[in-house]
Each structure stands twice: as structure tokens, then as C-alpha cells.
Known about the structure:
The chain is α+β, with helices and mostly antiparallel strands. It has seven helices and 14 strands.
Amino acid sequence: MFIQAPALSSQSNIRHAFFTREGGVSEGIYASLNGGVGSSDDPEKVQENRRRMAEALSVAPDALISVYQVHSPDAVIVEGPWKTERPKADAMVTSVPGLALGITTADCGPVLFADAQARVIGAAHAGWRGAVTGVLESTIAAMERLGARRESIVAVLGPTISQKAYEVGPDFIERFSKEAPGHERFLREAERPGHAMFDLPGFIGARLEAAGIGAFTDLGLCTYSDEERFFSYRRTTHRQEPDYGRLISAIALTP
Length: 255
């Protein structure tokens, strides 16, 4: 049902999970642990899936917190369940025990952060746009506002599309080269002329290393190639399916 990272599971005051697509009640293209409230899946089934995730993290069902993700660089501080609509952002941080910060992905990079000593955690949705525009750095800065120390922060990248499955076209290459100068090494020539294979996990790792955090781990799991365990937006697109399930990656402080 979920995967854990030793870098986080070794911390006694932190619970986390990179949930797979297994262990839920959804059917068809959403089978089975679809956590995407923005998908066209049966809302009751999504709610039950998320309840199971919350239970696995030992938090209340309404304490599995998500934002309305828009591929932005924005991080918000979470103090409790949302009283109104989910804010538009792509990262969350908190120092409140019993809240699980849940990021939704289906190829983009889910990054979980923790400063166990300061008892501050974070979670970020890092697609290429968010990574380029600074969502990872925004998460770290927001954690620091809650008392975290940059050099004590551990970050883990969960299931993400790998370079071998991520072909990009000329427009992407031009924009990436312009907006992230000096990082062209993450673009490898593709078989198709004018195209490249983009290393999103490598780029995320480079941004976090440059930010000066304490430690970074990439679990090395590819969403596209492992259909049994992971949803993938790109795989769905290639098959011309009408929609896709969403994976949840979440982290919580113990009470």
C-alpha cells in the first residue's frame, strides 16, 4: 500500500508514506488507491481511499491535508484542516502534530521534508515548472519560518517519472534552457530529432543540493514504467485514456 524511506522512518517523531495505487476501492483506470479529489473518479471511493491513507498515518480523516495544486512556486503554512476551499499552492509546511501533509502526483516529483529536531515538516509537488520557479526553495524557506534549520532538513523524492520515459520537445528545451541556465546537463539527446529526455529527479536533486539542506534521497522509482504500483499521467496520455488516478505522498508529526 505504501513505501517508506529510511531517512524519514528512522525519525521516531515522524510518520510518512509514499502511497502506491494498491490497497484502495476505486475501479477501472483508477484502480485502486486513487487519492485525487480532482479526478473524475467516484467521490465516495476517493474519500474512502483517503480515509485508509489517513488511518495508515494514524491521523484523523480530515487531517490529511491537500492543496489545490497549480504548478506554482508557492508554499503555505498549515495550522489545521482547511475551513474553506483548499488554497492554490504546491507545497505545505507545518509544526502542528497530527496533521498529514498530502501531495498529489502522477509523474511529477513528490518531495517530503523534515527537520525532526525542530519538529517541522513539509511536502512539495515538484513538476518541472514548480522546480524551475522555486517551489522547493519556497518549502525550505517556509520551514525556516517555523524554526527549522536548513542544514538539518532531510528531503526525500518519491515515485517520479524517470529520464528514460520523459521525452520533451523543442519548446520545452528552449524554455528550460532560458529559465534554468546552467542545468542543460539534465537534457539528454532523444532519438527523435530536436527532442530530449529530461531528468526531472536529477534536476530536483540538484536544486535541493544547491539550497544547502542536510540530506537528499531519491528513491529511484519511476511512475511511468511501474504500472502495477503507480499512476502516470504520461502513460495515460499515450494510451488516450480519459483520466488518470493520483498518488498521495504524505508526512505527519506524531502527537
